[in-house]
UniProtKB/TrEMBL annotation:
It catalyses: cytidine(967) in 16S rRNA + S-adenosyl-L-methionine = 5-methylcytidine(967) in 16S rRNA + S-adenosyl-L-homocysteine + H(+). InterPro entries: MeTrfase_RsmB-F_NOP2_cat, MeTrfase_RsmB-F_NOP2_dom, NusB-like_sf, NusB_RsmB_TIM44, RCMT, rRNA_ssu_MeTfrase_B, rRNA_ssu_MeTfrase_B_ent, RsmB-like_ferredoxin. It comes from [Enterobacter] lignolyticus. The keyword Iron-sulfur does not apply. The active site is at 375 (nucleophile). GO terms for cellular component: cytosol. Belongs to the class I-like SAM-binding methyltransferase superfamily. RsmB/NOP family. Residues 164-429 form the SAM-dependent MTase RsmB/NOP-type domain. This is Ribosomal RNA small subunit methyltransferase B. Keywords: Cytoplasm, Methyltransferase, RNA-binding, rRNA processing, S-adenosyl-L-methionine, Transferase.
Length: 429
């Protein structure tokens, strides 16, 4: 029989790889999830994401509770203590179970001599919890974001910055996209209710449903048959501006994992779609999504800056450019973003976005539509990017999305809303 590893020690290792080595949690977690029982995979995910969501709080508490930090080869123990604190603070796991399992994690990481230390720190926290949390509430770390990001968000949204940070620190809602080639949204909602689940519609996006409580995809009526796809409401908003039609030639650039490619084909099943992404590995997800939904598109690996390498001189009726970005609008879904991004990344990303826009614009037919979208909330990647593009591109006209002075539409993350997302619709004269 397969022996399963201590779940808390695996969560500590996952967090350590993100924070210390700059690895993405979506790369680190799947191999670790293979080491626990199927029923425990969701908990391993919750602990890993949760610790990264509340990292500054857990770090601050450890500095109060320990006279010196754990360094070098003992560093994993620092993250194991974080996992323990997170369970005591933010989960319903009984305290005795959280303590026992976390202390046992020291054996799994070959530090059995530190069991007493871990136990002592966590019990001390329990005794001082109230006073510590009151003090933390007035500390600089209370926003649970790196300082550089707090500064940028505060500057961009002087009225709303605290609400944005607060939304980033919440667990995300689960949004679905109903496949209109199978059912209307309301017909599928009725099926959902008969299966004992409740969903809510979105006022602006006609295919979107928000689940009252997140669930596994297997519980969703017709998921395997392609009736429904997991996709945030804001990502679905791209179709509102792209408006694809049957018979058109459409480019989905930076397409992986394929959510928008398949949405184009649900709206316009007879469109000729080319899906391009630079990441060969992530393209496999585009194929998976097309297969599950029974759809066909041409899929190519390619760099958006060099269309001549992959588009064979083609001109497109419509282009969806879901540009590479800081992903600061989807922090609630990917709490590791806060610790993987650096302040200097923003200027580099803005340059890359400008290069792709300039390279792909000549491949849009006159009268054609290009929708520029990001899951960022930072003006440098969004309104400022499009304002600069309009200035240097004589045949580009902004349509339906903002004004030339303040181009684009910016969604901010909110509890019953989609993620942070930006759209600009451009028409070629």
């Amino acid at each position: 029989m397969k022996k399963h590893q201590n779940l808390r020690s695996l969560a500590a290792q996952a967090v350590e790889q993100v924070v210390e080595q700059g690895q993405s949690l979506s790369n680190v977690l799947p191999p670790l999830q293979q080491k626990v029982a199927d029923k425990d995979r969701a908990l391993l995910q919750e602990l890993s994401f949760g610790v990264l969501r509340t990292l500054p709080q857990l770090d601050w508490l450890i500095t109060q509770l320990m006279s010196r930090p754990m360094t070098g080869k003992q560093r994993t123990v620092h993250y194991l203590i974080m996992v323990g604190l997170y369970q005591l603070l933010h989960t319903r796991i009984p305290a005795h179970a959280a303590l026992a399992e976390t202390v046992e994690g020291a054996v799994a990481i070959k530090r059995p001599q530190l069991k007493g230390l871990i136990n002592g720190v966590l019990r001390q926290f329990q005794r001082q919890q109230e006073a510590l949390l009151a003090e933390f509430a007035t500390s600089d770390s209370r926003f649970l974001h790196p300082d550089w990001l707090v500064k940028r968000i505060r500057k961009a949204y002087p009225q709303q910055w605290q609400a944005v940070l607060e939304a980033n620190n919440q667990r995300p809602p689960m949004w679905l996209r109903v496949n209109r080639t199978h059912h209307t949204r309301d017909a599928w909602l009725a099926l959902l209710e008969t299966s004992g689940l409740k969903g809510y519609t979105h006022p602006r996006y006609p295919d979107a449903v928000r689940l009252e409580t997140p669930t596994s995809v297997q519980a969703l009526p017709g998921f395997d048959a392609g009736w429904v796809t997991v996709q945030d409401a804001s990502a679905q908003g791209c179709m509102r501006f792209l408006m694809p039609e049957n018979g058109e030639t459409i480019l989905d650039l930076c397409a992986a994992p394929g959510g928008k490619t398949t949405h184009i084909l649900e709206v316009a099943p007879e469109a000729n779609v080319l899906a391009v992404d630079i990441d060969e590995q992530r393209l496999s997800r585009v194929y998976d999504n097309l297969k599950r939904l029974g759809m066909k598109a041409e899929v190519k690996q390619g760099d958006g800056r060099y269309p001549s390498q992959w588009c064979d001189g083609r001109q497109f009726d419509r282009i969806l450019l879901d540009a590479p970005c800081s992903a600061t609008g989807v922090i609630r879904r990917h709490s590791d973003i806060k610790w993987l991004r650096r302040d200097r990344d923003i200027a580099e990303l803005a340059l890359l976005q400008a290069q792709i826009l300039d390279a792909v614009w000549p491949h849009l037919k006159p009268g054609g539509t290009l929708v520029y979208a990001t899951c960022s909330i930072l003006p440098e990647e969004n309104a400022e990017q499009i304002a600069a593009f309009l200035k240097r591109t004589g045949d580009a006209v902004l349509s339906e999305t903002g004004t030339p002075e303040q181009p684009g539409l910016q969604n901010l993350p909110a509890a019953d809303e989609g993620d942070g997302f930006f759209y600009a619709k451009l028409i070629k004269r």
